[in-house]
Amino acid sequence: MKKLHAGATDMTSGSPYRLLFLFTAPLLLGNVFQQLYNMVDSIVVGNFIGEKALAAVGTGFPIIFMMSSLFMGLSTGATIMISQYYGARDMENVRATVNTIYTAMMIGIIPLTIIGILCSRPLLLLMNVPNDGTLELAEIYMIVIFVGMIGTLGFNINAGILQGLGDSRTSLLFLSTAAGINIVLDLAFTFCGMGVFGVALATILAQITSWLFGVYFINRHYTFLHIHLFQFHFNRSLFQKAIKLGVPSGIQQALFAVGIMAMQALVNSYGSTFTAGFNGANKIDTFVFLPIQSMSTAVTTYVGQNVGAARMERVHRGTRAGLTLCVGASILISVVVFPLSDLLMHMFSQSPAVIEAGVYYLHALLPFYFLCAILFILSAVLRGAGSMIVPMAASLLSLWLARVPIAYWIAGVWGKEFIYYSYPVSWAIGIIIVLVSYLHGGWKKKTIVTPSTTV
Questions:
Q1: What pLDDT sits at residue 7?
Q2: CA atoms within a 13 Å half-sphere pointing along the CA-CB vector of 105
């Protein structure tokens, strides 16, 4: 792997298998640390506070995700722009893109925080959160998380910048630091009797620390970039490109979160015990998903740099490599986790009913996870090239035409234990949509840069 700048990786030459594996490995470990935030929250809450608190912590996540989706989408757009500009060796636009996205975040975080706080309770009520103490705990958790949302968004923008440059190692440093802080504060605040409020406070303090450390590190080690938090530099043309790339992703994530909320409302209708089982199993599911998430991020960066460098033959080779690695990993992990489902659920609760509810979830999804891998890798290829509409359509159509309605139908016909089989059906529908687009080839014309020899 050729290094043009310290930490950055040129992915326009060398073996796609080797490049993707070496990029994914630290990214995967970093994502594991990131998921430890909610994982530790859930373990501490479920074992030391109670199942209502466990249900509350998990219930608030899709609302938080939905409210922050637009900025997460802009981060995705920035990653694609940076990877393509970096592949084209256009450092001026790399720097200008970073400054523009940071300016947008620093201005936009204020209304996002206010709206999030004001909408927390009404959205929880729409999700049928049980009014047995769970509702009040979920509202407390969400409000605290929204107050510290700048740390979450800032970290994701930093990660997007680094990923666009081909650097997946540095984010691991940020996340390991934050995870350590989160674990220590989680336990300390819980044993001090601060409950769900303390768990949320520990999370935002860890995330803000990670974000600020990231700003310092990028400014020190990437000399061609310099992030000024309170000196705004805004390029309208670049922002419009980021909007064009990021808004479809943001809309996709927001509507996907709404879909998760619809599923969560169905789950919540069966009471706090079933909800606690769902939320515990969802944390395990999240870890199983991490290799797919990490590899798809690597593929997006790989495709972006090679499209920017006008090396389309390498894009196709990278697609095959990504599919091979990701499908293989998903099958292996599913085979290992499936027989351990009951044991893993004991991390979150000792209640047999909660454990049983979580096992229903895991046993329905794990045998079909290879479908999720195919869907995400093909979508990552399209996004890396700058084609954002098709992945958005695939995600939303598979969710709203398959997963949500089928889940509600199954619940009425066969019962709550079988609702999770709607997931693999939705993945299969999404695959059909993105595969047709990939084979058609129109995504090859979506690049936003003109290759340059300037370094």
A1: 61
A2: 30
